[in-house]
Amino acid sequence: MLNRLVIIGPGLIGGSLGKAVIARSLAREVVGVFRQESSLNKALALNAVTKGYISNYEASIKGAEMVVIATPVHIIKDVLLNLSRVESKGFIVTDVGSTKKEIVDFAKTFSGKFKFVGGHPLAGSEKTGVEFSQPNLFEKAVCVLTKDKDTDESAVKTVKNLWESTGALVDVLSPSEHDSILAFTSHLPHIVAYSLVNSEDSKYSRYMASGFRDTSRIASSDSILWNSILMSNRANVLYAISIFKKNLDILEGAIANGDTELLIKKIKEAQEVRDEIYGAT
Q: How many distinct structural domains can be found in the chain?
């Protein structure tokens, strides 16, 4: 059991982690760091933290073994900088950001201050805010931790144990592997959803049924958050887009040329891959 776990920016993910830790008695204290009093009060009322501070890193970190940064990607570097200025030393820092290499490389600047382990729980939704947090959000969800030659092995084990205790299935990858994979499995789907919705005319919404709803759901994701994710993983995202364009060109060519055989072949290939991943319906 941890004595004090600090969660900076408890929203959907951070709040869910706080609830899971409290429900399972994984820490004596779950301390939240907030920017606004209203957010702190909401998290306390929802039992996502046991106490909290408004932008007070020094007080919140005192006596903590682990700090979880649960802010949007574009804020994480600033949080790391703030953590480097506190009096305490030797604590573990991890995050929940959707990109890893840029963050991990920046955190190495402070290796004498704290031990950083990149993290990314593959859970959540297009919703944000602690009011959407759930104590069982991570059960059977994959959580990726990152490790390279500079990562402290004991810190990885400690963070891994925390996530596994919430019910998550932990994989350990290099930061580059994470970003390369997630460009295809997470970042590209968002770009496709944005492109799909932007290709439509809302005046035809009467005729948009479950197919459109299902394929466009993640287009409702927060724009500031996803701008920072896509820009942080730019090279990998651009490569994923190039592969998607090639496949789209094949479908376009088959339709333009009346090539029924090729079109059916590509549709079947997609069906087989999806059925392999999620099971036939």
A: 2
Same domain, 136 and 237: no
User: Which of these three, 158, 173, 188, is where a domain ends?
Assistant: 173
> Contact 88/62 with Cβ under 8 angstroms?
yes
Q: Are residues 124 and 196 in the same domain?
A: no
Question: Using CA of residue 128, residue 130, residue 136, residue 140, what is the dihedral sign?
Answer: positive
Residues 6+ apart with CB under 8 A from 161: none
Q: Are 46 and 15 in contact (CB under 8 A)?
A: yes
pLDDT of residue 124: 78
Q: Do 113 and 71 belong to one domain?
A: yes
CB atoms < 10 A from the CB of 137, how many?
A: 22
10-residue stretch averages of pLDDT, the chain, 281 residues long = 95 96 97 94 96 95 96 96 94 97 97 96 83 94 97 97 98 98 98 96 93 94 94 97 98 98 98 92 66
Q: Dig out the tokens for 46 from the structure.
A: 């929802």
Confidence (pTM): 0.92
Of 173, 196, 224, which residue is a domain's last? 173
Task: Tell me the β-bridge partners of 66.
Answer: 5, 92
Q: In terms of residue numbers, what domain contains 208? A: 178-278
* 148 and 245 in a common domain: no
Token pair listed for 41: 């009060």
Enclosing H/E stretch for 194: helix 188-198
Looking up tokens 């944005």 gives 194
Dist. CA 213–CA 12, nearest whole Å: 22
User: Among positive and negative, which fits the CA dihedral 164, 169, 174, 179?
Assistant: negative
| 163 and 200 belong to one structural domain | no
